[in-house]
Design brief:
The complex is a heterodimer of chains A (about 325) and B (about 325). About 0% of the residues of chain A have low confidence. Chain A is globular. In chain A, β3, α4 and β4 form a beta-alpha-beta unit. With about 325 residues, chain A is α/β, with parallel strands linked by helices. Chain A has a six-stranded parallel β-sheet with strand order 2-1-3-4-5-11, sandwiched between helices. In chain A, strands 7-6-8-9 form a four-stranded parallel β-sheet, sandwiched between helices. A two-stranded antiparallel sheet of chain A has the order 10-12. With about 325 residues, chain B is mainly α. Helix content of chain B is about 75%, strand content about 0%. Chain B has a two-stranded antiparallel ribbon with strand order 1-2. In chain B, a hairpin with a 2-residue loop joins β1 and β2. In chain B, α1 packs across α12, α3 runs antiparallel to α4 and α4 runs antiparallel to α10. Chain B is globular and about 60 Å long. The two termini of chain B are about 20 Å apart. The chains are: A alpha/beta (about 325), B mainly alpha (about 325). At the A-B interface, β7, α7, α8 and α9 of A face α2, α10 and α12 of B.
C-alpha cells in the first residue's frame, strides 16, 4: 500500500477542525459585554432524555432574562471532562456556575474547586459529597414512595409486586428503591415476588419481564419500574402475553411515550419530575447568587403522580 | 497405550461436542430445578429473546472468520433502528421503505468498515471502534436524542407471531440457514476461511482478499441492520441508546461456538449453539431469581472457559 503523505493527512485534519466550527451546536467562546451577567452551565449528558429536557429549560429560561448570558457545555457523562469544563468557567471568571453533576462521589472535586475559587455554585438534579451554594432538585426517595403508594392503593394493599431496578448504585436507583421499601413496610399484604436490574433499558426490561411471566405467572399483580423506559418494556411484554389487564404497571419520569401510554389507558401511571421547574429554579438561584442576594440553600421541586384523571395538565 | 488413546479420543470428543454437552446439561439442570423452564411457552420465549443476538452473531461470524472483528454492532443496531423508525410513522411510507432504510443503513456502515480495513489498511479493531462512536453519534443526531416513537403497527407486528412461531425467530433461522449453506457450499464462503487462515497463501492462490473482506463486513453490516429493525419493532421505538454492548454478547456467542479470534476456524453451527447457551443462561438465571451481579460473573466465566478450550485445541 502507498503511504499517504503526512501533509495530506495534516491538511485533512485541519480542514475537519475548521469545518467542525460551523456545525450546529458548536459556538465561539463567550464574549462579554459590560455589566452583563455570565453564567456557565455544565450539563451531565444531553443524550439522556430527562437531562436534555432540563438543559433546554435552563437555556430557554435564561434567554428570557435581560442582561444575562448563559453558556452551556455537555459533559457526556464524563466526570473528567466536566471537571475541565468547570476549570474553564473559573478561568473565564464567570459570575455563577450551574452544575448538573455526573456523579455523587467523583464530581465532588469539581465542586470543591469552584468553592475555592469563590464563584457562586448552583447544583441541579444531583448532589455531590460537598454542597454548593444552592441545590435545586427533586427527592428521588419521594418518587419511589409515590409510585409504590399508587400500586398499594390500586391493589388494596394485597398482592405480589415485581420491581425493576435502574443501574445499581446510582443515586436515583438507591433512592427510588428506598422510597418503595418504605411502602412495603407499611403494607404487610404487599409482597415483593422478585427484583432485578434492567439498567434503565427498555429492551432489557422487556426480556426480564418475559422471563418473569414464565416464572411467576399469576403470582404478581403489579410491576414497579424505576423509570418509564423500563416500565414501557414491561408493559410491552405483558401486552404481548395478553395479561396486561391483570397487572398494574407504574414507572417514573413522565417521558412523552409514557404520557401517551397513560392517555391510551395502557400504562397505569407515571411520576412526573418537573424539568422546567428545576431549570427555572436553578437559573433564578444563580442570578440571586451572582447579584450577592440571599438565596435558599435548597429548593426541592415536588414530584407528582400522573394518572388518566389529571393527565391533561401534563400534556403540552 | 490404550489408555492414552482413550484419553485422546475423549479430548477430541470434548472439543467437538463440548458446547452441545454444556447446553444439554444446563437445560437438564434447569428442567429439574424450575417448573417453568421446560415448557413450550418458555422455550418459545427463549427463542424470541436470542433471535436478535443470534442475527448479530451470525453476521459477526463472517468477520471473525477473516481474522477481523466488529465492535460497532451495538451502535449500528441503534442507528439502523432509529433510521427505520423515522420512516415508519403510520400512513407515510409503505412498509418496504422503513425496512429497506434500516437494512441499507446497516449495510453502508458495514461496507465503510470494510473499505477502511482493506483500502485504508487500518486495523479492524480501530476502524470499528471509530464506527462504534460515530454510529452512536449519528443515531443521537437523527433522533434528536429522544426515542423515535409512533411506529406503524404494520412494522411493530414484525416482532409478533406467525402462527405459533415468533417472526424474529423465523428471521434468525432463515439467516442462519442461508449463512450455513453459503459458508459450506459456495466458493466465496470457503475463501473466507482461506483469507482468515493465511492471508498471504490465499492471495498467492488467486483469492481477492479485498473483495472477500469487503463482503464479510458488508454482510455483517446488513445483518446488524436487520437486528436493528427487529429490535425497533420489538420495543416499538427507535432508541438512540439501544444496543449498548450488544457486540460483546454477539462476539462472546461466536467465540463460545468455537470460532477462533485469529480467523480461519469456525462454523455457523457453533455460533448457533453459543447463542443458545448465552440465551438459556440469561433466561435460566432470571427464572431462578439469581441476582444480575452473579449473572455477569457466570457469563464471564463461561466465555473465558470457552476461549481456553479453543486455545488448547489449536495448540494440540
Amino acid at each position: 500500500m502507498r503511504p499517504t503523505p503526512r501533509l495530506a493527512i495534516g491538511s485533512m485534519l485541519a480542514a475537519l477542525t475548521i469545518f467542525s466550527l460551523f456545525l450546529p451546536g458548536c459556538k465561539k467562546p463567550a464574549e462579554r459585554k459590560e455589566g452583563e451577567i455570565l453564567i456557565g452551565f455544565s450539563s451531565r449528558d444531553l443524550s439522556a432524555e430527562y437531562t436534555a429536557k432540563l438543559s433546554e429549560a435552563i437555556v430557554e429560561y435564561a434567554k428570557t432574562k435581560p442582561g444575562v448570558k448563559l453558556v452551556m457545555v455537555d459533559a457526556q457523562s464524563d466526570v473528567q471532562k466536566q471537571f475541565s469544563q468547570v476549570e474553564n468557567f473559573v478561568a473565564q471568571k464567570v459570575d455563577a456556575i450551574i452544575l448538573n453533576p455526573c456523579e455523587l462521589e467523583a464530581s465532588t472535586p469539581a465542586v470543591d474547586y469552584v468553592k475555592a475559587a469563590k464563584i457562586p455554585l448552583v447544583l441541579v438534579n444531583q448532589v455531590t459529597k460537598s454542597a454548593g451554594d444552592s441545590y435545586i432538585g427533586s427527592n428521588d426517595f419521594e418518587a419511589g414512595r409515590i409510585a409504590m403508594e399508587a400500586i398499594a392503593k390500586k391493589l388494596n394493599g394485597q398482592g405480589g409486586v415485581l420491581m425493576i431496578h435502574g443501574i445499581m448504585g446510582t443515586s436515583a436507583q438507591l433512592q427510588r428503591e428506598a422510597g418503595a421499601r418504605e411502602v412495603f413496610a407499611k403494607y404487610p399484604g404487599l409482597k415483593l415476588i422478585d427484583q432485578q436490574t434492567a439498567s434503565w433499558d427498555r429492551a432489557k426490561a422487556m426480556a426480564l419481564t418475559e422471563n418473569w411471566i414464565q416464572a411467576h405467572k399469576g403470582k404478581f399483580q403489579a410491576v414497579f419500574a424505576h423509570n418509564d423506559e423500563m416500565a414501557m418494556g414491561a408493559l410491552l411484554a405483558l401486552e404481548r402475553a395478553g395479561i396486561k389487564k391483570d397487572v398494574t404497571v407504574i414507572g417514573i419520569d413522565a417521558i412523552a411515550q409514557a404520557l401517551t401510554a397513560v392517555k391510551e389507558g395502557r400504562l397505569d401511571a407515571t411520576v412526573f419530575q418537573d424539568a422546567v421547574g428545576q431549570g427555572r429554579g436553578s437559573v433564578d438561584a444563580a442570578l440571586l447568587l451572582a447579584r450577592k442576594q440571599p438565596c435558599p440553600k435548597e429548593n426541592l421541586i415536588p414530584f407528582q403522580l400522573v394518572t388518566l384523571e389529571n393527565l391533561s395538565s401534563f400534556l403540552k | 497405550m490404550n489408555a492414552a488413546r482413550t484419553l485422546h479420543l475423549d479430548r477430541n470428543f470434548l472439543n467437538r461436542y463440548g458446547i452441545l454437552i454444556a447446553l444439554v446439561a444446563l437445560a437438564g439442570v434447569l428442567s429439574v430445578t424450575t417448573d417453568s423452564f421446560a415448557t413450550a411457552s418458555n422455550l418459545t420465549n427463549v427463542a424470541r429473546q436470542v433471535s436478535i443476538n443470534g442475527i448479530l452473531a451470525v453476521g459477526v461470524t463472517f468477520v471473525l472468520l477473516t481474522g477481523g472483528v466488529d465492535l460497532s454492532l451495538g451502535s449500528v443496531v441503534a442507528l439502523s433502528g432509529v433510521v427505520c423508525a423515522l420512516y415508519a410513522h403510520p400512513g407515510e411510507y409503505p412498509l418496504a421503505v422503513p425496512l429497506s432504510m434500516g437494512l441499507i443503513t446497516g449495510a453502508l456502515c458495514g461496507l465503510l468498515n470494510g473499505v477502511l480495513v482493506t483500502r485504508g489498511g487500518i486495523a479492524p479493531f480501530i476502524v470499528t471502534l471509530g464506527m462504534m462512536t460515530m454510529a452512536r453519534g449519528l443515531a443521537l443526531i437523527f433522533s434528536g436524542g429522544k426515542p423515535v416513537a409512533d411506529m406503524t403497527p404494520a412494522l411493530t407486528n414484525l416482532a409478533g407471531d406467525w402462527g405459533p412461531l415468533p417472526i424474529p425467530v423465523l428471521c434468525f433461522a432463515f439467516v442462519a440457514l442461508l449463512a450455513w449453506l453459503f459458508l459450506g457450499r459456495f466458493r466465496l464462503g470457503r475463501h473466507l476461511y482461506a483469507v482468515g487462515g493465511n492471508e498471504q497463501a490465499a492471495r498467492a492462490a488467486g483469492v481477492s482478499v479485498t473483495k472477500v473482506k469487503l463482503f464479510a463486513y458488508g454482510i455483517c453490516g446488513l445483518l446488524t441492520g436487520l437486528a436493528g429493525v427487529v429490535l425497533a419493532a420489538r420495543i416499538t421505538t427507535g432508541q438512540p441508546n439501544a444496543g449498548q454492548a450488544y457486540e460483546l454478547d454477539a462476539i462472546a456467542a461466536v467465540v463460545i461456538g468455537g470460532t477462533s479470534l485469529s480467523g480461519g476456524v469456525g462454523s455457523i453451527r457453533g455460533t448457533i449453539l453459543g447463542v443458545l447457551l448465552i440465551g438459556i443462561i440469561n433466561n435460566g438465571l432470571d427464572l431462578q431469581g439469581v441476582s444480575s451481579y452473579y449473572q455477569a460473573v457466570i457469563k464471564g466465566l463461561i466465555i473465558v472457559g470457552a476461549v481456553w478450550l479453543d486455545r488448547r485445541q489449536s495448540r494440540s
